[in-house]
Amino acid sequence: MNIIFLGPPGAGKGTQAKRLEERHGLVQISTGDMLRAEVAKNSETGKQAKALMEAGKLVPDALIISMLQSRIEQPDCRHGFILDGFPRTAGQAEALDAMLAADNKTIDVVLFLDVDENTLADRIAGRYTCVNCGTTYNEVSSPPAKEGTCDVCGSHDFKRRSDDTRETVVKRVQEYRNLTAPILPFYRESGRLRTVNGMAPAAEVAAQIEQFVTK
Ligand code: AP5
Ligand code: ZN
To answer: Which of 17, 34, 109, 192 could lock onto 28 through a cystine, CB 3.0 to 4.6 A?
Structure first.
């Protein structure tokens, strides 16, 4: 099964994609994580992406489409994948359908995480991640059981994303409104869109999603 998560920044796409990956053995593909890895390596792609990401702007379609195509051609994607953060423009959505069709594949379901825009900045401001294992926490909704200690690996080392400032979140939400929200009708008309109430606690959101992916 191939799945897309759509939703604004901070809607919970990464949180839910990770849970689905663990439950269903699908591969989570986060284009944001892939870009952050390129920035950390200081590769050509990373150099092109860095300033745009820090300004809350989308990176160019051509760059992200070729990066995504090479990833979904990897053998581990053969049994299904979850796209977290892609597609984000009409051009990306069309390119994705074309690249999958060429390989006799398709997207089975598009999960739209519907979240009130007023909550996004708070969620993002509260987010932090374990440096060692990548587990994501939230100061308000999901802190570790023992303060300052990662539940998964026991590390005490946490980091925040450089684009998680309140100013940048405003820009990221604008990009979402202008470029990503307009692709929702494309998936709705093809009968693949499922709307999930992303305002519920993460475990309840996961339960809603489960109904859509096991049908
Ligand atoms: P990317 O990394 O994709 O960021 P994003 O879309 O802005 O999404 P986030 O990762 O901020 O949020 P999320 O929905 O995953 O929320 P999360 O689960 O972490 O992209 C970053 C940048 O890369 C872009 O700005 C762009 O420059 C570039 N880029 C990436 N892909 C691109 C593309 N396709 N085209 C062009 N450019 C691209 O949750 C957030 C917080 O809330 C966490 O703390 C979490 O614990 C908490 N939380 C989660 N669920 C709940 C809940 N139900 N209730 C309460 N709290 C919750
Ligand atoms: Zn950890």
So the answer is: 17
